């Protein structure tokens, strides 16, 4: 079934009005962007977004009043977080024999009026150009975490049954396009989602009662995120269905993670995931880990449908490319649900050996998508003591009893991640044999694979590295390194890795060591 089947009214006169430069008093051309649910007209410094007159199972914009309400709701939801973009609601009115934008006559359509931003700075364009830097992704994760912190909680939501409805709608929607999506693949995905929902039902309901179900963005993919100046702005939040937008916050995050991972940007997805967890000051995002494979699959299936519907407004090579993209999303949904073994990788060594850099580089390849949870002792120490990540702690913050608490927290969190069926990488000095043994025991208790890496480099190089650090969670200086080096590390059965040279060289050695040990 094509997009045209879902169209219930002719809006061509409205579209022609908004596409005409004279309507906006500009000399240049008006650029039109078509999606399955809206048409956007970019005119000079302004943009106008009109809802399509369509009726889908998941979205009903079939009447003028429903489209007006959807425009008003889009403003209400988005303007507080993106005031630099959202300007107001404007009517397209009948004026005699013609139409006008913002006239005095009877409204025949409504549009969201926006200030135009630089389309080259949306995150899908940045991704295509290879410009998703660590700094940008860190700001992105912080923006998403902040939006979730502000979002109203809905403890009464029947989370499992709502997601079951999403899964059923996905299967029905995909089945409408057998020329694009193989029926056997659609049926297989539907069955896998149902099995996962049956298993995860109690967890999803418990998370709702704990306040993890919130009125979220709902459509958090890269095209709906833009950099304005130095600020990451989330826009175009889902407005047409409170039911679909009110969901587990990890399910909301999963749309973004899926969009990155499906593009092959696994390292970027892992970074956003771990920075999001680090930014969350309340709640328990890691509690949603068991459901993350299902969340990723559901989001990919939704994107497959939406991309297929949008392709009907394209032609030639652009339509063919959109069809391929839609099929790729469905393939990703299947991959996301494939079981991957949970495992624990430990990275130890003296301060300055590059443990955190290496752990972050290894994390994307450990366990299920989007890779391992990265637990770092320096960060956990700051959290334990209620200090900002980059604030230097007093000497008392490094007392033996505090360190013991930090390592206990690392083991507790690693145990929880493994129990959720996910991968985890723990980055800490681990200089004492009992610390290493206790972490290995966590993996054994959980029936998970364990691999340990011990980084080594000359003392002078380590002292120089820590002295050059800026903007890092670690407070260790050259004197701390010398004190560590004076201690006996005891018997060591972790794989020793030369930490000298460039980070990519250390990464290659570490991967070889993991491969040699069967990881």
Number of helices: 19
How many domain modules?
Answer: 3
Share of helical residues? 40-55%
Mean pLDDT: 92
CATH fold type of the largest domain: Aminoglycoside 3'-phosphotransferase, Chain: A, domain 2
Structural class: alpha/beta
CATH class of the largest domain: Alpha Beta
Strand order within the widest sheet?
A: 1-2-3-6-4-5
Morphology: elongated
**Rounded Rg:** 26 Å
Unreliable parts:
none
Q: What's the short version?
A:
The protein is an alpha/beta fold. The protein is 48% helix and 16% strand.
Provide structural commentary.
The structure is a single chain. The protein has a six-stranded antiparallel β-sheet, with helices on both faces. A five-stranded parallel β-sheet has the order 12-13-11-14-15, sandwiched between helices. The chain folds into three domains: 3-116, no CATH class; 123-336, Alpha-Beta Complex (Aminoglycoside 3'-phosphotransferase, Chain: A, domain 2); 343-516, 3-Layer(aba) Sandwich (Rossmann fold), CATH 3.40.50. Strand 8 and strand 9 form a beta hairpin. With 519 residues, it is an alpha/beta fold. It has helices spanning 12-19, 21-24, 64-78, 123-128, 134-150, 159-175, 183-209, 242-245, 249-262, 266-279, 292-311, 316-336, 355-362, 377-384, 400-419, 433-445, 459-467, 478-485, 503-516, and strands at residues 31-34, 38-43, 46-51, 86-95, 98-101, 106-115, 213-215, 225-228, 231-234, 246-248, 343-349, 373-376, 424-427, 449-456, 495-498.
